[in-house]
Specification:
single chain; 203 residues; mainly alpha; Growth Hormone, Chain: A; 10 helices; globular
Length: 203
């Protein structure tokens, strides 16, 4: 089944661009935290996780003929964001140990398994070179802002609040990550609102 073109106005590009900006902002802000989150896990888990990721990505690829559509793109994108949201809540609600680390790790592996699909579908949906350029520039700017904010945040935790324990720092960082993730889900929902309304109309 061919992917619908953006010319059908199924996706609001402005909202989608905002979604991608905050999505990359989240990535830049959180990129350093995973090393602390995953510390309780053994190397064997990462090896097993890598095998599982490769197999899951292969399974997703076999379904490209079914899921290359704006509707599936929205569903799977929301699934990814809700998975990340649950991981954030787990870090904020429970002590950072092996169970939480494993939960977060498996959640991220799930999102990585869909990564190739989401990137390829996004490219096929937004075939306009100018829009693809806007998306890539927004993502890179947001990623740089996120990494810079992460570095600044850790410095403030240590110097202003005297929080030097890395687990405590990473936990504190998850509060702004929670806010950003809620914004991400909101923007994603708004971007696909028109197509979902049309899908619900009676034939």
């Amino acid at each position: 089944m061919a992917v619908q073109s953006l010319n059908n106005d199924s996706i609001d590009f402005g909202w989608f661009l905002t979604y991608k900006f905050f999505n990359s902002l989240f990535l830049g802000l959180s990129i350093g935290a995973v090393f602390t989150l995953y510390e309780p896990l053994s190397p064997a888990i990462f090896s097993a996780g890598g095998i599982g990721l490769a197999l899951a990505t292969l399974v997703v690829a076999t379904q490209y003929h079914r899921i290359f559509s704006p509707n599936w793109f929205f569903r799977l994108s929301v699934s990814v964001e809700i998975t990340i949201l649950l991981g954030i809540l787990a870090v904020l609600m429970y002590p950072l140990g092996k169970p939480v680390a494993l939960f977060v790790y498996l959640g991220y592996q799930f999102t990585f398994a869909l990564g190739n699909y989401l990137v390829r579908c996004e490219t096929l949906l937004f075939v306009d070179n100018r829009r693809l350029a806007q998306l890539d520039m927004a993502k890179q700017v947001a990623y740089l802002v996120g990494m810079g904010s992460s570095w600044l945040g850790y410095q403030i935790f240590a110097t202003k609040f005297n929080i030097v324990d890395k687990v405590a720092q990473v936990t504190m960082l998850h509060w702004p990550l929670l806010v950003i993730e809620v914004i991400i889900i909101f923007c994603l929902t708004c971007a696909f609102r028109s197509s979902r309304k049309r899908d619900r109309r009676p034939a």
